[in-house]
Write a structure and sequence with these properties.
Blueprint: E1 11-13, E2 17-20, H1 26-36, H2 58-71, E3 77-83, E4 86-97, E5 102-110, H3 119-133, E6 139-145, H4 149-157, E7 161-171, E8 177-186, H5 187-204
Parallel strand pairs: 5-6
Antiparallel strand pairs: 1-2, 2-3, 3-4, 4-5, 6-8, 7-8
Helix pairs in contact: 1-2
Length: 205
């Protein structure tokens, strides 16, 4: 059986963005490298895009993309996020568990200039729509460090339920361990949110 994630389109469009699957080629590595090479490494501490948070060389970026491609070859999908045809971030569909109909969403990052504009939520909302309405998921899971307040607030505001915390369940590239928050959203909860939104829109007309 083909994993549902592997059936996803190469390009997913939202209202303002495009999420594109890019192969790990020198040309695409340069595209990503140019987008992040001048970023502050501290901004990527919780979601490192390379061993040193931000790659120091083009070769390191290519190696990272190759690792991501190999990691997701059989079960996941990697999407690079574009705004006005400019690369601003990345999101990974980690895997789809057919037994529980669960899609795990993992690693998302945006360049600093794209923060605070609702882009992460926009890609997340589109992901949920695809997961529940196309892939047939019953559940979506996400996770983040307890220290990553921005991600935790974003996930919570998107209607996810905090299932629990795994104490010292993760490790940063600098070998520091951290507590991991596990979140989930069920299809029934998603439908309830969609119905409320539809009702609100109808009332505004």
């Amino acid at each position: 059986m083909i994993n549902p994630v592997k059936k996803l389109p190469k390009v997913i469009k939202t209202k303002r963005l495009e999420m594109r699957q890019l192969n790990a080629t020198p040309e695409n590595a340069k595209l990503v490298f140019d987008a992040v090479k001048n970023e502050n490494p501290d901004d990527f501490y919780y979601n490192p895009i390379a061993e040193n948070a931000v790659p120091k060389t083009l070769a390191e970026m290519l190696k990272k993309m190759q690792q991501e491609e190999e990691y997701s070859k059989s079960t996941g999908a990697n999407y690079y996020i574009f705004y006005n045809n400019k690369l601003i971030g990345y999101r990974r569909f980690h895997f789809f568990d057919d037994a529980t109909k669960t899609l795990q969403m993992s690693i998302v990052w945006l360049v600093r200039s794209a923060w605070g504009k609702g882009f992460a939520k926009e890609t997340s909302d589109k992901t949920e729509e695809i997961a529940f309405n196309i892939l047939g998921a019953n559940r979506i899971t996400r996770q983040c460090s307890t220290e990553n307040v921005r991600s935790a607030n974003s996930i919570k505001s998107s209607g996810f339920h905090l299932d629990g915390i795994s104490r010292q369940g993760g490790v940063y590239p600098d070998n520091k361990v951290y507590d991991v928050m596990f979140w989930s959203k069920l299809k029934s909860e998603y439908k309830k949110i969609v119905r409320k939104l539809h009702s609100r829109l109808c009332q505004d007309k």
